[in-house]
Amino acid sequence: MFFPLPMLCPICKRAFGADPKGDPRADPMMPPRPRFCSERCRTIDLGNWLSGSYAVTAPINEDDVDPDFAGKPTSHDREDA
Questions:
Q1: CA–CA distance, 17 with 57 (Å, rounded to integer)
Q2: Residue 41 contacts by C-beta under 8 Å, 6 or more apart in sequence?
Q3: How does pLDDT run across 47-79, given as a tens digit for each residue?
Q4: For residues 10 and 35, is the Cβ–Cβ distance under 8 A?
């Protein structure tokens, strides 16, 4: 499947998916645009997620925490399970 503007694969940086025929996003039946150029790059990205390579590196600020949710126990915190 081709799309009007090329995208860069976030893994290998290869351009893919360009098609000069027009913008398919005008068609509601068109499937969503693929994010990766190949199954290989998709699998590499999944491996990066599973290995923990993607992580939030900034510390959490108190302004970022929802005061209505902070400190409330969750279902996996209960000891009676």
A1: 32
A2: 9, 10, 11, 12
A3: 999 998 988 777 878 787 777 775 655 555 555
A4: yes
Looking up tokens 């398919």 gives: 24
Tell me the C-alpha distance between 24 and 4, whole Å. 8
Model confidence pTM above 0.85 = no
The contacts of residue 21 (CB under 8 Å, 6+ apart) are 2, 4
| CA angle (52 as vertex; 50, 16 as ends), nearest 5 | 65
Helix-strand-coil split of the chain, %, nearest 5: 25, 5, 65
Fold held by 7-77 = Erythroid Transcription Factor GATA-1; Chain A (3.30.50)
